[in-house]
Amino acid sequence: MKRQVFLALLLCIALNVFSQNDSAAFVHGAWLSERIDGLVLRRCQFKHESLFASNQQILVWELAPTADFALRLAYRPERTKTSDMAREQHAVAAVNGSFFDMGHHNPVLFLRIDGVDLGQTSQGEAKLALDDYQFGTLAMVHDSIFILKTDTVPQWEESLPYPNLMTARPLLLFDGKTLPLREDLNFVNDRHNRTAVGIRADGTVLLVVVDGRAPEASGMSLQELQQVMWWLGCHTALNLDGGGSTTFYADWGGNHGVLNCPSDNGRFDHEGERTVSNAVLIVRKPKTESNPMFLLAW
Residue 210: beta bridge partners? Predict the structure, then answer.
């Protein structure tokens, strides 16, 4: 029954889409689901070039507003695997976070955790915000979560009152509408592994990973990722760091908890996880917390 409801939701969303063949393939894919105390894991591998004329693997964490879990941000000054950051914080689930300098390890977009500013937007990224992309900022205070449309005013994020902020790019959906993506940029058009965060109108948060750079999983362009986030019912959605950084973690099972196939080792297996600067975690709420989590997109 739950699977039928999920498929019906996807089908309703898919009626407005991209390509009827792709929307039908997405809705009727062999989706597998697991549920733990309101936290839902969904995953599907699309074979025989059945989605966007390509093979794809998609994994999704769904965090309902009434679940006994909360979203948290993690950062390490020295690059660390997403799975290691998750274990250190006793997280039940995680994905990699926003963009960082591969050589110097530092975030290249604004990052604040528990009121401490840990990363500033670099000059290069600030120019991209002006010329190429609409940035977005994931904001958290207590158990409220927002995705904000980032302003291009210098140090804009520093003025925000929220104790937890992560800026990334580009913003894919906002207030129920798709945002334009530049069609002359390789970062937009080429297929890569992708990681994204989205929020549905009912407050459900989605952490989404698309594998890539393998015959079994081609990866997606940002237009294709935007469409997938729409099909998944997101009202607002933000692209995070992708490529070899893309990682999807659960604190159960083998493979060190890595459920996707990170590509840094050049193989379609679970062993190619990259060290990164920051991550988005799902943690259990302390037992003393009884208020439901309210999630909004502004």
Answer: 58, 194
Distances (CA, A) of 221 to 112, 192, 251, 262, 264: 29, 7, 29, 17, 19
Neighbour-count burial of 288, counting CB atoms closer than 10 A to its CB (0-12 exposed, 13-18 middle, 19+ buried): exposed
SS3 state of residue 40: strand
Distance between CA atoms of 154 and 152, rounded to whole angstroms? 6
Give SS3 for 125: helix
SS3 assignment, position 123: helix
Strands laid side by side in the 248-250 sheet: 69-81, 275-284, 93-96, 248-250
Long-range contacts of 126-134 (CB under 8 A, 24+ apart): 126/152, 126/154, 128/169, 129/169, 132/170, 132/182, 132/185, 133/169, 133/170, 133/171, 133/182, 134/169, 134/170, 134/171, 134/174, 134/179
Q: Report the chain's terminal Cα–Cα distance, integer Å.
A: 33
If DSSP codes are grouped into helix, strand and coil, which group holds residue 95?
A: strand
**Is the pLDDT assigned to residue 295 strictly greater than 80?**
no
**pLDDT bracket for residue 288 (50, 70, 90):** low
- What lies within 8 Å, CB to CB, of 291 at 6+ separation is 143
Among the listed residues 245, 292, 293, the one whose alpha carbon sits nearest the alpha carbon of residue 81: 245
Summarised one tens digit per residue, pLDDT across range 178-204 is 999 998 999 999 999 999 999 999 999
Q: Measuring CA to CA, which residue among 209, 201, 220 is closest to residue 296?
A: 201
Q: How far is Cα 134 from Cα 129, in angstroms, rounded to an integer?
A: 6
